[in-house]
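Input record (one chain):
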Amino acid sequence: MKRIFDLFISITLLMGLFPIIIVVAILVRVKLGAPIIFKQLRPGLHEKPFYIYKFRTMTDERDSNGKLLPDHMRLKSFGRWLRKFSIDELMQLVNVVKGDLSFVGPRPLLMDYLPLYSVEQSQRHNVRPGITGWAQVNGRNSISWEEKFNLDIWYVNNQSFFLDVKILFLTCTKVIKSEGIQHGDQITMPLFTGTTKRTKDL
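The corresponding structure, as predicted from the sequence alone:
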């Protein structure tokens, strides 16, 4: 039922939002450069890798030595606007159609994090990852990694269709209010370096 719901809604949204997606793509190309789409390998269901798609939000500006400038220097006002209203996430509708993502589930993180999870934290990969999730409507980037993972695992153990509907409703509210986008003064979450309870090693 969840997969049917995901397919129906994602295809409907892609068709309805197609003109907006084209306009955003043109603006990204003009204001931020190419490539228009940012893609990155992420772990999906049962840790199977897939490429996640987003509209790019940063430039490729580099210093005199050819090294990329810090994120806050490459994130321009247009990129901030895309992130503020989660417009950069629109291309993940394609991931939903492909079956890489669901609308609701733990957010797919970096492949580099896989060896750092505890056994309990690894349970977040027992369900298909999502565009939004329980952690996103309960703090998003404003909470710690430990809190995020606890919320993800709670969702895995308590998932239901009605919970998904609740999360989707709360997500719309959070997007409108632009809540939880940043972690403190940082524009993105700090890198996850491991948990203090490494039950994998016990």
